[in-house]
Structures are given as structure tokens and as C-alpha cells.
Write a structure and sequence with these properties.
Blueprint: E1 6-10, E2 14-16, H1 20-28, H2 30-36, E3 42-47, E4 51-56, E5 60-71, E6 75-82, E7 90-99, E8 102-112, H3 115-139
Antiparallel strand pairs: 1-8, 2-8, 3-4, 4-5, 5-6, 6-7, 7-8
Length: about 140
């Protein structure tokens, strides 16, 4: 049996100046995901209530579908999964932790890719997820 390894990426942790309920609600609107991406590197954006699709660097089409969203008193997690339109499968989790009036946020990504592809995408993926965290924090300044 062929086993394709899982690559894991974790963004930087940021402090968002809003309560967890507001940040969680923001992430449920798929149109807001575009605001978290580097606009100079994406094109052909479209979204529905529970998915979004875009081209990154005019090469790869990424389609994300929200598959779950859980909000508790002290934490929240929204999970997005790629569809078959994406070049390789990955699961992206936006994780939130309440700090009262503010929220700590970061993203975890598990990608099913071979080691060669991981070497190619590791830097760009890390930069992308760090950028998304920073943008989320800036959305609530």
C-alpha cells in the first residue's frame, strides 16, 4: 500500500482585539477569507455560503469548503477542507482561544503530500498561514 505522508504547518499565534464570538462569526463568512489572503497573489475569487475558490499565483486553484465550526465559551475551531479542485488535499483549522475581551488565534494545516512536494511548499505555506494570522488580527484593530 502506498502511504503519502502528512505534512503539518502551524501559523504564528496572534492576539485579536475582539471577543471570541466576534472572531468566530467573522470566520464563518466565507467572503471574509479573501480579506485574509495576500491579494497580490490571488485571482479568480469566488465564494458561496460554505466554500471559496481562488487561484494562487495564477497557477494553483484552491477550493476550500467549511466542514465544521464549533464555538465554546473558551475556545473555537473552524475546519476547512480542500476539494478535488485543489492540487493536493489539506485540512486547515482556524483555532481560537478566549482571553476575555480579546482572542488568541492561529491556523493548523495538515497536508497530504509527498516529501519532495513538502520541500517545495513548506516556505510558501508557512508564509501564507503567518500572513493570514496577521491579517486576522488587523481586521479587528
Amino acid at each position: 500500500m502506498n502511504h503519502i505522508p502528512m505534512a503539518k504547518f502551524t501559523s504564528k499565534i496572534v492576539e485579536v482585539n475582539a471577543p471570541i464570538s466576534e472572531v468566530h462569526a467573522y470566520l464563518q463568512n466565507m467572503a471574509n477569507i479573501q480579506r485574509l489572503l495576500p491579494l497580490d497573489k490571488i485571482s479568480n475569487w469566488s465564494n458561496t455560503e460554505d466554500s471559496c475558490c481562488f487561484k494562487i499565483q495564477n497557477v494553483y486553484t484552491i477550493e476550500l469548503k467549511r466542514i465544521s465550526a464549533v464555538l465554546n465559551d473558551n475556545d473555537a475551531e473552524t475546519t476547512f477542507e480542500t476539494t478535488d479542485k485543489s492540487p493536493f488535499p489539506f485540512v486547515l483549522k482556524a483555532k481560537l482561544k478566549s482571553n476575555g475581551a480579546s482572542t488568541t488565534a492561529h491556523q493548523d494545516c495538515d497536508a497530504t503530500i509527498n516529501p519532495f512536494m513538502e520541500m517545495m511548499v513548506k516556505g510558501p505555506f508557512q508564509q501564507l498561514f503567518d500572513y493570514m494570522s496577521e491579517r486576522l488580527a488587523k481586521e479587528f484593530v
